[in-house]
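FAQ
Q: What does a multi-component entry look like?
A: The components come first, one per line:
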Amino acid sequence: MKKEILKSTRDGFGEAILELGKKDKNIVVVDADLKESLRVSAFAEKFPERFIEVGVAEQNLIGVAAGLALFGKTVFTTSFACFTPAICWNNIRISVCYSKANVKIVGSHGGIATGADGASHQAIEDLALMRVLPEMVVLAPADFSQAKELTRLAAKHKGPVYLRLTRPATPLITSYRSPLTKIGGSQILRTGENLTIIGCGPILTEALKAAENLDAEVINCYSLKPIDKKTIINSVRKTGKVITIEDHSIYGGLGSAIAEILAQEYPVPVKILGIKDTFGESARDHRQLWQKYGISKETILKEAEKMLR
Amino acid sequence: MEKNLPEIAKRVRKEILGMVFEAGSGHIAGSFSSTDILVSLYFGDILEKKDKFVLSAGHYCPAYYSVLAEADMIPKKELKTLRSLGSRLQGHPHNLGLPGIVLTSSGPLGQGLSQAAGLALAAKMDPSASTSAMSSVPNGSRQAKFRVYCLMSDAEQQEGQIWEAAMFSAKYKLDNLVGIIDKNGIQIDGTTEEIMPLGDLGAKYLSFGWETMEIDGHNFGQILDALETSKHISDKPTVIIARTIPGKGVSFMEGKWQWHVGAPTKKELEKALKELK
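Then the predicted structure of the entire assembly, as tokens:
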């Protein structure tokens, strides 16, 4: 049995930003004392002139990033998702979005998958917080290689972007032969007839595991905003039922985005799987948390059984 | 070219009154207290071509828009459109509405200084350098491409973010950054002393590593001297704390926090304009 390669989305970001830094002298990284965790230490060492350290000061992080961007830099801010957007949401709203500043906010350690640090460090509201901001593009890569690709796309995009990364090393699930990754795109990981499962982030591994026992179509919706309405509705036309899954609150994230579309344009039964309006907790293995909080292969199978009855 | 700053300031105050009256709302006390500072900055031969201005106290925009009109950057007749639907002159500045003229958007206090610091840092960054020796302040001593002036209110110093930016600016030795505090002693619901005493602002900034100057914010000579002196400070940012009078220029508005926000009645407008003749 081939040993599964496990890599984290934050490692993908770290590799990509280093490569981008080499090619484009306008790339600047502004960090809030988390450069090792966000995998930008290599960037900091190679480009000390373009690595700005603000310390534990997330509001200033965003303001400084906006100032740099207003002078033409392509700026990436690096911190945890539980801090950016959480601490500095209004700064992102006015200094970045309202001004359309070219700032890419990288929030790592998204979801309860953050594990041991516990609830305060497990961002389960960040997708909702960013989705409601005008001008904000919201991206959630499913694996290491997609994180690299989305980092590149974020740099190319002119305007604010939120890039949600995760802490643990997880399997590679996006194939190199997959359709062109683009902002506003999505990816069909597996075709099926009876059920559409839509997810974002490494939690999709659970969806793929569940789909082995179902005739289900699995869609990787890595771009929450703008969202790939066409692919979603096409799939739903075929299957007639949807389960969404995300390592995020059931409120305001991917599930809500899907429900907003379908309720208004193509109403079908939708089951939103996510963290059920509760805080997380510490655990040593993220899969234990996924199990306990109902965002696992088992929950998907249970809900699918109800829907397919 | 010699400019009559007090005359310009008088015209600016008249425009402020007119536009706020027309709009039915706006912030007069702060606009008036900061008028002399803004006039000095824009017409006192201080700004070089590439220099940037950030209005952190966004509600001062009637003064800012008026000064921009005096400087022929926006047409004077546009001033009366303040706060109306479709106007470029939003209630709090929106940079996208005035591209190339207004650099940052503001409104919520405390955000401007960080953006000004980011701009000041950008002015010192040399993108072609890639493998210089690792240093905590790689850009610190380099000559800046432009200077950045940031106007703040005193109540704004209550926002924690200001102190994050202050710490940051000292770390990065932003000697091309000048913060100007319009210290008029009032805020929406009362005096700063009642609402949240600021203590010794000068001592605070000094302890944060800034060059600190305290002046009379209505003495053009002192304002210009301070701004000129700031150009010769090295390796640290400068803050100019300007003691001002809210509502300065109109006798029945001076010193009153109640004029922080609100439009004058027709009678009050006439009375005020008479004083500014």
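Q: Is there any commentary attached?
A: Sometimes. For this entry: Strands of chain B lie at 52-55, 148-153, 177-183, 186-187, 190-191, 211-216, 238-243.
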